[in-house]
Amino acid sequence: IIMSIRETCSDWYDDTEPRNDPALAGKKDPPDGFQIKVKRRNVGPSSTQLYMVRTMLESLIDERSGAKKNLRKDHVAPIEEFHRKSFFWNYLLNYNTSLFNCGDLSQLWYREFFLEMTMGRRIQFPIEMSMPWLLTDHILETQEASMME
């Protein structure tokens, strides 16, 4: 699974894996480490790459899979932390959409809820019942300068 994650997400220098990498032969790294050249890019992973990596990591650390017991204990915590933190990356990769959704106040309008409550006997409900109206009314009634900005 770890090799699959590596193949899915690696952006190798010259677009080829280093042939002398000990991991490819199933060996441990030398004591002084093994240096891999990776290009510096200002591009995040694609949504597909992110989904695939998260899915593979989840299958690796899931208690039910049994694969977790094959990992060293000091490797499990960083993998779990990466998996937990990477959940939010999709929102960062789609920052404009996330920001738009945060500023969208249309869910504060209770029209659908009210129509469901009246079972169609009323077509609309008074605007004074909507959250935007209540907030605007509160701001105008209190006349606090900081709220009016």
TrEMBL record:
Superkingdom, natural source: Eukaryota
Gene Ontology biological-process entries: regulation of actin filament polymerization
Chain intervals with Basic and acidic residues compositional bias: 16-31
One Gene Ontology term of the molecular function aspect: small GTPase binding
Region of interest called Disordered, as start-end residue ranges on this chain: 13-37
This protein's name: Uncharacterized protein
Species of the source: Biomphalaria glabrata
